[in-house]
Write a structure and sequence with these properties.
Number of helices: 8
Largest sheet: 7 strands, mixed
Order of helices and strands: EHEEEEEHEHEHEEHEEEEHEEHH
Helix content: 25-40%
Number of strands: 16
Distance between the termini: 14 Å
Radius of gyration: 20 Å
Structural class: alpha+beta
Length: 305
């Protein structure tokens, strides 16, 4: 098969799920192309990309040639660039809707389901939440819950996640965050048991791996591995399984084939639809090769289409 990866220019070859997916694609004998979002185009209503045909070893890409590819002639396209989920990101989803290839994940549903907004489909699973840029509303929310988190609606990786306990800091934090991101922000009641943070990976709506994330700095509220958190094995409990069973059918229906969800203290915080990661860590913890299971599922979808 021909497979294309729409991805960032720089990745970490040791920890990035994208590299693991590419490596498994090569092992299966697929023809692999990579390109960055700025090399994507819609020409005469056809989606194309200026791409590199590549091969890989354990820690690098080798570009065989540069070529313009018609994305209608590709079997699978992976959307693997990181947010921010801005107009540039959204525009790529419009272009990828024009292709007949299997796109992982479905570009229409990536656009319709930003990671911190899709959780609103399941209000019974999430902490008390407010999405706005109105400072008065955020003040009222803080008055009700006393201890809250403010974070950008469309960023990622723990960027600008701020805990607010003193109401006097609300004005300046909200003004700076809205000015920086030019959109509403999300406020949530603070989940106090940070030690109960989990990343769970789902394939076709069903869990395939889970890990616990632990901040390495005392007092740090962010559990993102990219910020230095460590990862540990974890057993899924009844609440985790309840969350997965409730969101799984909706994810599968929308073509959100491979996602990662964040659960803290029994609450669903995010559903990572854009470029889910964590496969490398789960593999290390449990001596698995999840990329094989993922590719088995992807190939089966192409054969059925």
């Amino acid at each position: 098969m021909k497979v294309a990866f729409q991805m960032d220019a720089n990745i970490n070859f040791e920890t990035d799920t994208t590299f693991l997916l590419i490596k498994e694609a090569q092992r299966r004998g697929h023809e692999i192309f990579i390109y960055t979002p700025n090399d994507l185009a819609l020409k005469l209503n056809k989606p194309i990309a200026m791409a590199h045909r590549i091969s890989i070893d354990d820690c690098s890409f080798t570009a065989k040639e540069s070529v313009t590819i018609n994305l209608n002639e590709v079997d699978i396209i992976f959307i693997r660039q990181d947010p921010p989920f801005d107009m540039r990101y959204i525009t790529t989803t419009y272009i990828l809707e024009k292709t007949g290839a299997l796109v992982i994940n479905n570009p229409t549903e990536i656009r319709n389901c930003p990671e911190k907004l899709i959780t609103s489909l399941f209000p019974e699973l999430i902490p008390p939440t407010l999405i706005t840029e109105n400072i008065s509303m955020i003040r009222d929310f803080h008055r009700d819950y006393k201890d809250i988190i403010l974070k950008p609606l469309y960023s990622y990786g723990g960027n600008d996640v701020i805990r607010i306990q003193d109401k006097s800091s609300i004005q300046v934090v909200v003004e700076l965050m809205v000015a920086k991101y030019e959109c509403p922000i999300i406020a949530q009641a603070f989940c106090k048991n940070i030690d109960k943070d989990k990343r769970i990976l789902l394939l076709d709506g069903s869990p395939i791996g889970a890990m616990k994330r632990v901040p390495q700095v005392s007092g740090e509220i962010r559990t993102n591995v990219r910020l230095g958190a460590s990862f540990e094995p974890i057993e899924m409990d009844d609440r985790d399984n309840e969350i997965c069973s409730k969101i799984g059918p909706e994810l599968e229906k929308r073509g959100l084939t491979f996602v990662g969800i964040d659960i803290m203290d029994g609450f669903l915080l995010e559903i990572n639809t854009t470029s889910p990661t964590g496969v490398v860590y789960v593999n290390k913890l449990y001596k698995k090769s999840l990329e094989i299971d993922l590719w088995d599922a992807f190939e089966a979808k192409v054969q059925l289409s």
